[in-house]
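hey m, so remember when u said the tokens were messed up on ur end? i reran from scratch. heres the input so u can diff it against urs
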Amino acid sequence: MVYTSSQQWPENYIERMDIPMLLDPVLLRSARQIYRTYYEVHPELTQRPTGVAIDRYTHRGKLIFKKRPILLPQECFVPFSQLEAEIY
């Protein structure tokens, strides 16, 4: 289902965003590498990202610092909680 600006979002939309999703292990590995590379280049980083938006096909991505990411149709969001599982 696609929602336009004139439609109402379901009440539990935010709750559904918090449900853990199973991600492709290759996407998860790529997202972790994107975060690791960013952190190595910017070690003074004090604000934690909310996650990584990553393209399902090219595995290119970017860190997201906003609470609600806006994704392109071919992108998926890897939350920081899934990134940090292997990092720490």
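this time it looks ok to me. Residues 25-41 form the longest helix (17 residues). if urs says something different then somethings off w ur setup not the seq
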